[in-house]
Input
Amino acid sequence: MNALDGIRILDLSRVLAGPWCTQTLADLGADVVKVERPPGEGHPGGDDTRGWGPPFLRGRDGNDTGEAAYYLGANRNKRSITCDIATPAGQALIRELATKADVFVENYKVGDMARYGLDFATLHAINPRLVYCSITGFGQTGPYKDRAGYDFAIQAMGGLMSLTGERDDLPGGGPQKVGVAVADLFTGLYATVAIQAALRHAERTGEGQHIDMALLDTQVAMLANLGANYLVRGREDGKVPGRAGNAHANIVPYQVFEVAPDAQGHAQHIILAVGNDGQFAKFCAVAGRPELAIDARFAQNQNRVRHRAVLVPLLAEVLKTRGKADWLAALEAAKVPCGPINNLAEVFADEHLRSRDMVRTWAHPLADEVDLVASPLKLSATPVRNDLPPPLLGQHTAEVLADWLGSSSEQVAELQRNGAV
Output
């Protein structure tokens, strides 16, 4: 039994934000049908990310299958059908499927769905309880609504790149994007929350609604404490938050520190994440500098922030006196938040993550197995599902049309003949 058993989702989204949303809903048990363009003249069909490699999944024969790791990472637990929504027959098929769906997700440009007769107003008229979620770069309204939205540009426009990266006055300073597409990912997760709230409303009232999700809105919401810092005081004081490297705007010490080099002379680093005054006192004891914890300039976090330029060099000098393993063991024993800076090989070798089943092995039609990052959701009564590997293009077309519409093999063949699927 999964939490969203019985919920049917028609997924016309591609790339990342939409598929991340529907993958989460699929993990929770929803029947997510991924609708993809069939192959045609000059294009391979399907979600663009199927070809976003290398790397590609290696097949049983040792050769690349053409299924990109990017695609595999965002489409587990779904079924795939092909449908050409540019054709009248394809549009009619999607409208018929929408009568059986609880949720419709799309991330086409504003106005495209209306051109195909698949907009909210049209589908709401034939299925009033349908929850319809649109995901775009800038939303359905506003002066930017017709622009294409890309995560990289959204990170820049939404202020994140003004906050990410080393300080401009230090080597390597300047704007940086985050290493993964966080605007896409956060938008997908916010959309997941909104869809479940709208489903609850539809259960109570029988009335669906249109959810308008925008990457730029989400990016601004993600500014969190830094956005609040600016609105509460920065705007009034004329202070615009900027890049601070690995330091924290409101907490000190909360950053990367260099420690003694390893036996081969390679530089080593740890992160120190002291969140309160008690933890700072414990750190000072471990570091052999207890006097810093009672210094009026440093005893309270607000004063440590004000005297950051004095305190941080003192701590940096102390931290270079001992090696990484020594510091981590001593700080962890004292309950001082800290950690190593792992590369991905170290992440996936970590015994704690292995114990948490954060990598799952899936059977795949083109390979004996494929390892993928698992859902982080741990529900005691309704655990996530792990039964469907990311689907091949159109793998489930006949199956889904039979399940949802009762279509016969002859009816599916007719749809294939007229180019609908």
In short: The CA atoms of residues 131 and 199 lie 7 Å apart. The domain at 8-220+355-417 is CATH 3.40.50.10540 (Rossmann fold). The longest strand covers residues 367-373. The chain has two domains: 8-220+355-417, 254-341.
